[in-house]
Every structure is written in structure tokens, then in C-alpha cells.
Amino acid sequence: MSDTADRVQKIVVEHLGVEADKVTQDASFIDDLGADSLDIVELVMAFEEEFGVEIPDDAAEKIATVGDATKYIEEHKG
Amino acid sequence: MRRVVVTGLGLVTPLGADVETTWSNLIAGKSGIGPITRFDVSDQKAKIAGEVKPADHPWGFDPNKRVDFKVQRQVDPFIVYAIDAAGQAIEDAGLENMTDEEKERAGVSIGSGIGGLPGIESESLVLAEKGPGRVSPHFVHGRLINLTSGQVSIKYGLMGPNHSVVTACSTGAHSIGDAARMIKDGDADVMLAGGAESTINPIGIAGFAQAKALNMSMNDQPEKASRPYDKGRDGFVMGEGAGVIVLEEYEHAKARGAKIYAEVVGYGLSGDAYHVTAPHPEGRGAELAMKMALRKADLQPGDIDYVNAHGTSTMADTIELAAAKRVLGDDLSGASMSSTKSAIGHLLGGAGAVEAIFCVLAIRDQVVPPTLNLDDPDEGTEGVDLVPHHARKREVKAALSNSFGFGGTNASVIFKKVD
């Protein structure tokens, strides 16, 4: 797992209280990890803080899986 | 007429994370008050409080028992305490497995005096330091007072009336009284009712200290600081926690063979119409509330055996006592009257509910809890049994609980043993 993927997984575990092995790159925040839309807002904020990236609302709306988040961060972090 | 009885109890207090631990510590004369541990108090005038103890304390609170991890992260502590106390009450009443139909007839009435002050404080700092884009999406619904009742109804699937009282330090008493009326009126057969508070945070302590409401002279002797009726009393000590009871229509409770603690027989309400923080100097509002509760209960002054006083350890204690004398007689017609705030501090919006539970337990165990630290009783206390220092066994068939709040809001609730 890449460093980014590792850190994304850690944030998701901390925020949603789910088992780390469930936080695969394919996992959907809503369908697999029990998040609701507000949890995703909070996660996006945490990603922005952790990686120093800005994730605009239209991009955040397209993040459905853990992999989507990892990919966006890797493409945009400084 | 539909009668309303108490069939379940739940407590989170500075003296315990459940009913029996809190009660046995209270009866043993222990104090839950100590130095504030949760934040740096070096620049605060008041440095002591009745904190709910952490999980590793002998009578500490473990939020993981009944509150989901995600909810704990999203909401203020007062809501966490309310959910746990409500869960205890449901388990105690044996109502964990209600049918869908029964859940439609079961509601919630849990309030708070202030609500999510710690979260308002911390998110305001986030706003100031990092800007609006970093404010939590859970900020609003994690701080709102009625999310006590909201979270409890969601967790337990309760679809009856969902109500939440905000009447400062009378909240817990009004919550119970209002819920009892809803059952009497036929709106519900079961109501979870109570109050919760957690404002032991920098701005909560500073705000009450600036209003000159808190004890600030006994920071070095925390267990002695809450001393209702004592000449040396000098302001209240803040507590925190929650109390929730299950109220149930009497025939409903009997039909399912429920354990019945007591009946809610009287509820009185009034306003002081006087001052924002000070009680009316003659206690007229307090008197009206007590009189109304007695009349509703169809009881005579001599029928009341125990009064759990509002008794905050302020100048108001003797005003309440004078009002109680006018209602019950100079010697309170033999009733004992104590302030359990001497042991747990003032739980503000949670106080009326926690103290109602103490009244119910006094009826169950035929014992009255003590007023701690009553070393030098103030003038006007002569001839009244204020239960100084030690709990006492005595007959308790009916008990009255008083709660008075900022804004001049008063409530009295009377519980009676069911024969």
C-alpha cells in the first residue's frame, strides 16, 4: 500500500470506527463503511488537513470509494 | 383517569455511572466533587466541579457501553450521558424488546439547560483559527438540546412524542412533569423522561463564575465547597451527568408485570416574574409550584415525608426553605428535607431528573440521603430536619422534588409509593 493509501485508511478508521481490513481501496464509504453524506464532508476535511490539498465541492461529490479519495489526493497533493 | 408510574431508572453522575453505584455512594456520604481535571484552570476563579469520572476510576463512566463510536465523536458529552442513562432506564424497565406497535406509543422527553457549550466553544475556535471551511458538519446537530431525545428515539426506535424541555435548572423536573402529562392525556403509554448537562469547560465555568453563581472560595477543599443551608455557603459547585426515568401508564405496567417504583402524583409549575438570576426574595414562585403540586396530588402537607430541595448552596437556600415552611408548616409537618447537591454539585438541566430519581429511591429503600457539610446551619433552619452529614432510615411514602431555574422558572414534582 502506498504511503497515501496508508494515511487515508488511518483517517477513515479513526472517523468511522470501522475495522482497518474493511477499508480497502474498493470499499464504498456509504455502502460498505456505513458513512452518511455528512461523514463524507468530515472525511474530506480531514484529508485536506492531512495532505494539504484542497478538495472542491464538485470533486468531493465524486468521491465514493476509498480508492477515489486516494487517487484524487495523489494527483493533487503538492 | 390514567395514572403514571415509574418503572425504570438510569443515572450518570459524579458519584457513579449507574443507579446503584450513585445511590450507595450518596447514602454512604461520599462526595463526587473535586478539582477540575478536564482543562487547565490556572486562570479560572472556580477550579472545582463534580465531574463524571473517567472509565478507569472505580465509579467511572465508559461511553462505549451504550453509545456508538460515531455518535460519541459527533455529539457533545451531555448527549452521550443522556443516551447511556436512557439505555439504563430501558434495561431496568425490561423494555428492550418492544414491538413496533409499542414503540409507536413510546416517546422521549429529555432536555438540557444549556446544551452543547463545549462543542460551541471548540468549534468557535476552529472557525476563528482555520475559517468556516473547517467547521464540523456535525456541529449543529451535535450541540442541539433536543438531540438528546432525537438520538435516544433513533437508537431505540421510539416513535411516540419527541419533546425536549429547556428551562435552565428546572429542565429535568419539567421534562418529567410534561412527559407524565402526555401519558395522562393518552399521547403515549411509555415515556423516557429526564435531563442531561455537561458544561464543565472553560467558557461554562467562566460564565457562571462571572455571574457570581459559583463557589470560588473553597478551591482547596472541593469536598467541602457545596454546603447548602450552612452559614459558610458561598455559591454552587457545577456538576454534570444525566438522569432518565421510564414513565409508564399504570395499567400498561401492571399488565406486563413491570417492577413499579412509585407513582407520579403531583406536578406544579410557576414563574417568579422577578429577576433573571435571583429568586424572588420571599420565594413566592417556589411556594406556588409546591402548592400546585400538592393540590394536584390531592395530598396534605403532613403526607410529604421527604423533600429533595433545590438547595444549591447559595443565598437562595433559605428562601426555598421559608417557602417550604409556608406550604408544609414550620416544621415541614415532620418531613425531612435535604440537598443532594452537597454531594454531586449542581447538574443544572440534569439536576431535576437526577434528584427525582433520588426521591424514587428514597421511597424504594425508606432512607433519606444527607445534606453534606451542614456544620453550622443558617438562621431559619431551626426545627427542620435537614438530614445533616448522614443518611437516615425513615418512613418515606411521598417525596417532593423542587427545581428552580434562571429566568425565574419553578417546578415541583411529587412521587408516591404505590401500595
UniProtKB/TrEMBL annotation, chain A:
Keyword Signal among record annotations: no
Gene Ontology molecular function: any one: acyl carrier activity
Database matches in InterPro entries: ACP, ACP-like_sf, PKS_PP-bd, PP-bd_ACP, Ppantetheine_attach_site
Record's comment on post-translational modification: 4'-phosphopantetheine is transferred from CoA to a specific serine of apo-ACP by acpS.
Residue ranges annotated for the Carrier domain, each copy included: 2-77
PANTHER family assigned: ACYL CARRIER PROTEIN, CARRIER DOMAIN-CONTAINING PROTEIN
Protein name, per record: Acyl carrier protein
From TrEMBL, chain B:
InterPro entries to which the protein is assigned, alphabetical: 3-oxoacyl-ACP_synth-2 (IPR017568), Beta-ketoacyl_synthase (IPR000794), Ketoacyl_synth_AS (IPR018201), Ketoacyl_synth_C (IPR014031), Ketoacyl_synth_N (IPR014030), PKS_Beta-ketoAc_synthase_dom (IPR020841), Thiolase-like (IPR016039)
Stored PROSITE patterns: KS3_1 (PS00606), KS3_2 (PS52004)
SMART domains: PKS_KS
One record GO biological process: fatty acid biosynthetic process
Enzyme class: transferase
Active-site residue list: 169
Domain Ketosynthase family 3 (KS3): 1-417
Stated family: Belongs to the thiolase-like superfamily. Beta-ketoacyl-ACP synthases family.
PANTHER family registered for this protein in UniProt: 3-OXOACYL-[ACYL-CARRIER-PROTEIN] SYNTHASE, MITOCHONDRIAL, POLYKETIDE SYNTHASE-RELATED
Function: Involved in the type II fatty acid elongation cycle. Catalyzes the elongation of a wide range of acyl-ACP by the addition of two carbons from malonyl-ACP to an acyl acceptor. Can efficiently catalyze the conversion of palmitoleoyl-ACP (cis-hexadec-9-enoyl-ACP) to cis-vaccenoyl-ACP (cis-octadec-11-enoyl-ACP), an essential step in the thermal regulation of fatty acid composition.
GO terms of molecular function: 3-oxoacyl-[acyl-carrier-protein] synthase activity
Pfam families: ketoacyl-synt (PF00109), Ketoacyl-synt_C (PF02801)
Keywords noted in UniProt: Acyltransferase, Fatty acid biosynthesis, Fatty acid metabolism, Lipid biosynthesis, Lipid metabolism, Transferase
Catalytic activity: a fatty acyl-[ACP] + malonyl-[ACP] + H(+) = a 3-oxoacyl-[ACP] + holo-[ACP] + CO2; (9Z)-hexadecenoyl-[ACP] + malonyl-[ACP] + H(+) = 3-oxo-(11Z)-octadecenoyl-[ACP] + holo-[ACP] + CO2
Pathway of action: Lipid metabolism; fatty acid biosynthesis
Protein's name according to its UniProt entry: 3-oxoacyl-[acyl-carrier-protein] synthase 2
SUPFAM superfamilies, sorted: Thiolase-like
Lineage: Bacteria, Pseudomonadati, Pseudomonadota, Alphaproteobacteria, Sphingomonadales
The EC number(s) this enzyme carries: 2.3.1.179
